[in-house]
C-alpha cells in the first residue's frame, strides 16, 4: 500500500520534475518532444482538476443544504448558477455567437454572468471609499508617508486631480504626473523588486523540495 | 459642541458615503464633464509607438485574460489595441487563459474587425480557452499547433490564411497581454525573457504599480494602466471609446476619495488640539 500511495507518486514527481527542469537547459530535439508531451499532459490533467473541483464544490454545498447549515439557502444558488450557464453552453455547443447573433449561451453570458460579475466588482468601489475614509488616518510617521504617496497617486491618476494640482501647486513648476512617475519608477519598483526576488527564491526552494521528496504534503495525510 | 460634531463626522454611517459616491458616479455618467487627459503617460505612449512601428502583415498575439469583473477597465484597452492593429493591417491571433473571457472576446470581435472590413481566418483568428497557461505558453515556443491545432470553431488552425508562416514565437512580432490576472507575469517570464518575444501589457489600475520592474528593464515594451490607460490609447488612435467616456466618473470618484481622506485627517488634527 505504501508503495502505491507514497513511493510511486514520489518517484513520478521526482523523475518528471528533474527531466522537465533539464529541458530548460537542453535544446535537443528529444528534449523539445518530451516537453511538448508534458505540456499536453499538463493541460489534460488541469482539465480534470477543474472537473474534480466542480464535484468537490457540489458535494460541499449538498452537505450544507442537507444539514441545513447557516446560510444553506445561498448554496442552492450554486446549482442554479451552474445550470444557468451549463445548460445554455450545452444547447449552444459552447458558442457565444452565431454569426452576428447571440446564441443562448451568449445571451446567458451577456445578461446573467456579465452583470453579476460586474456588480460584485463594482460594489467593491463603495467599500473602498468608505474604508479609505474610516481607516486612512495618520497615526504614525509611516502612515504619513503612505498618506502623501496615496494622495499623489489618487490625484495624479485622473484629469480632474491634475487640474486641481495645477490650480493649487502650479506655481511650483512640478507637474503631478512627474511626481507620480517618480513614485512608481523609484520607490515602488524598489519595493516590488524585493518582493519579487523573495517570492522567486521561495518558489525555487519549494520546487526543489518537492522534486527531491522533502515536501510531501501534496500526497495527503495517510 | 464642535468636538461632538467632529466625532460624529468621523463615525459617519458608511451608507451616507455609499449614497454620496452613487450620486457622484450617476451625475458624471448622466452629465459628462468632458475632461481630457493633458498628458499621455510614457508607458502608454511606448505601447502605442511599438505597435505603430510594426510592419503591415506582422503577426501579433492578443492574449485577453479578463472577465466581466475587470472588463470596464480592460475591455476599452482591448478594443483600442485591436482597432490600432487592424488599422495598421497587422494579423491578429487571439488567445485566452481566463474562462470568463471567451464571451467578451466574441462580443469584441463581432464589432471591431467589421469597422476595418477585416475577415475572420484571413486577418484574425480566435483560439479556444486553455486551462493551463504555463504549459500552453511553453508549448508555443516549439510548435504553436501542438496546442492550438484548431480554432474556436474547430477549423484546422494550420489552414487559416492568417496563420501563414506562423510556427512558433520566432514568427510572432509582438504579444499584447491585457489581463486582470497573473498572465502578464507569465508572458514576460515564459515567452518574453526566454524567447525574446516583445510583450506589451494592459492591466487594471490597482495592479499597475507592480509592473514597474518589468518596464524598467524593458521586459515590457509598454503598459496601459486601468481606464486612464484605455483613455490615453483611445486618444492616441483618435477613436474615443468607453475609456474616454468613463474618465469623468473615475475622476470624480478619485477626487471624492481624496477629499474624504483629507477631511477625516483634518478632523482628527482639530480633535487632538481641542
Describe this structure in words.
The complex is a heterodimer of chains A (222) and B (274). Chain A has a domain at 1-69. Chain A has eight helices and two strands; from the N terminus they run αααββααααα. Chain A has helices at residues 2-23, 29-67, 72-91, 104-135, 141-156, 159-169, 176-185, 187-211, and strands at residues 97-98, 101-102. In chain A, helix 2 crosses helix 3 (72-91) and helix 5 packs across helix 7 (176-185). The model of chain A has no long low-confidence stretch (mean pLDDT 88). Chain B is elongated. Chain B is 50% helix and 11% strand. Chain B has helices spanning 2-10, 14-30, 42-53, 71-87, 102-109, 112-115, 133-142, 183-195, 212-216, 226-236, 242-273; strands at 59-65, 91-95, 124-126, 174-179, 199-203, 222-225. The longest helix of chain B is centred in the last third of the chain and has 32 residues, at 242-273. Chain B is built from eleven helices and six strands. A six-stranded parallel β-sheet of chain B has the order 3-2-1-4-5-6, with helices on both faces. Chain B has a single domain, classed as Rossmann fold, CATH 3.40.50. In chain B, helix 2 (14-30) runs antiparallel to helix 11 (242-273) and helix 7 runs parallel beside helix 8 (183-195). At the A-B interface, helix 2, helix 4, helix 5, helix 6 and helix 7 of A face helix 2, helix 5, helix 7, helix 9 and helix 11 of B.
Amino acid at each position: 500500500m505504501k508503495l502505491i500511495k507514497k513511493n510511486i507518486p514520489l518517484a513520478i514527481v521526482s523523475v518528471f520534475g528533474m527531466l522537465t527542469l533539464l529541458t530548460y537547459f537542453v535544446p535537443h530535439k528529444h528534449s523539445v518532444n518530451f516537453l511538448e508531451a508534458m505540456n499536453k499532459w499538463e493541460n489534460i490533467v488541469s482539465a480534470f482538476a477543474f472537473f474534480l473541483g466542480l464535484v468537490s464544490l457540489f458535494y460541499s454545498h449538498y452537505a450544507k443544504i442537507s444539514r441545513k447549515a447557516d446560510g444553506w439557502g445561498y448554496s442552492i444558488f450554486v446549482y442554479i448558477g451552474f445550470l444557468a450557464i451549463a445548460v445554455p453552453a450545452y444547447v449552444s455547443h459552447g458558442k457565444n455567437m452565431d454569426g452576428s447573433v447571440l446564441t443562448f449561451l451568449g445571451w446567458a453570458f451577456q445578461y446573467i454572468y456579465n452583470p453579476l460579475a460586474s456588480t460584485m466588482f463594482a460594489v467593491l468601489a463603495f467599500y473602498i471609499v468608505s474604508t479609505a475614509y474610516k481607516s486612512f488616518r495618520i497615526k504614525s510617521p509611516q502612515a504619513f508617508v503612505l498618506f502623501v504617496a496615496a494622495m499623489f497617486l489618487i490625484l495624479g491618476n485622473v484629469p480632474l486631480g491634475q487640474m486641481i494640482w495645477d490650480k493649487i501647486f502650479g506655481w511650483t513648476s512640478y507637474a503631478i504626473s512627474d511626481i507620480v512617475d517618480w513614485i512608481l519608477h523609484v520607490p515602488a519598483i524598489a519595493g516590488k523588486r524585493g518582493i519579487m526576488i523573495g517570492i522567486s527564491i521561495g518558489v525555487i526552494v519549494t520546487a526543489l523540495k518537492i522534486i527531491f521528496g522533502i515536501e510531501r504534503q501534496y500526497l495527503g495525510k495517510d | 459642541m464642535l468636538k461632538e460634531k467632529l466625532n460624529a463626522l468621523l463615525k459617519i454611517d458608511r451608507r451616507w458615503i455609499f449614497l454620496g459616491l452613487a450620486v457622484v458616479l450617476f451625475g458624471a455618467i448622466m452629465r459628462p464633464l468632458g475632461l481630457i487627459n493633458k498628458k499621455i503617460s510614457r508607458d502608454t505612449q511606448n505601447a502605442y509607438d511599438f505597435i505603430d512601428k510594426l510592419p503591415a502583415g506582422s503577426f501579433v498575439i492578443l492574449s485577453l485574460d479578463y472577465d466581466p469583473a475587470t472588463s470596464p477597465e480592460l475591455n476599452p484597452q482591448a478594443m483600442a489595441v485591436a482597432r490600432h492593429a487592424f488599422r495598421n493591417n497587422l494579423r491578429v491571433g487571439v488567445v485566452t487563459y481566463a474562462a470568463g473571457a471567451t464571451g467578451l472576446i466574441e462580443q469584441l470581435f463581432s464589432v471591431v474587425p467589421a469597422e476595418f472590413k477585416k475577415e475572420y481566418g484571413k486577418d484574425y483568428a480566435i483560439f479556444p480557452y486553455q486551462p493551463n497557461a504555463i504549459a500552453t505558453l511553453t508549448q508555443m515556443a516549439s510548435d504553436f499547433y501542438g496546442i492550438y491545432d484548431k480554432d474556436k470553431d474547430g477549423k484546422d488552425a494550420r489552414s487559416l490564411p492568417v496563420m501563414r508562416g506562423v510556427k512558433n514565437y520566432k514568427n510572432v512580432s509582438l504579444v499584447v497581454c491585457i489581463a486582470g490576472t497573473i498572465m502578464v507575469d507569465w508572458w514576460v517570464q515564459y515567452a518574453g525573457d526566454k524567447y525574446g518575444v516583445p510583450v506589451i501589457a494592459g492591466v487594471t489600475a490597482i495592479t499597475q504599480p507592480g509592473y514597474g520592474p518589468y518596464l524598467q528593464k524593458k521586459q515590457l515594451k509598454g503598459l496601459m494602466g486601468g481606464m486612464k490607460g484605455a483613455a490615453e490609447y483611445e486618444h492616441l488612435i483618435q477613436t474615443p471609446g468607453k475609456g474616454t467616456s468613463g474618465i469623468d466618473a473615475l475622476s470624480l470618484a478619485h477626487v471624492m476619495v481624496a477629499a474624504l481622506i483629507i477631511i477625516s485627517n483634518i478632523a482628527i488634527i482639530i480633535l487632538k488640539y481641542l
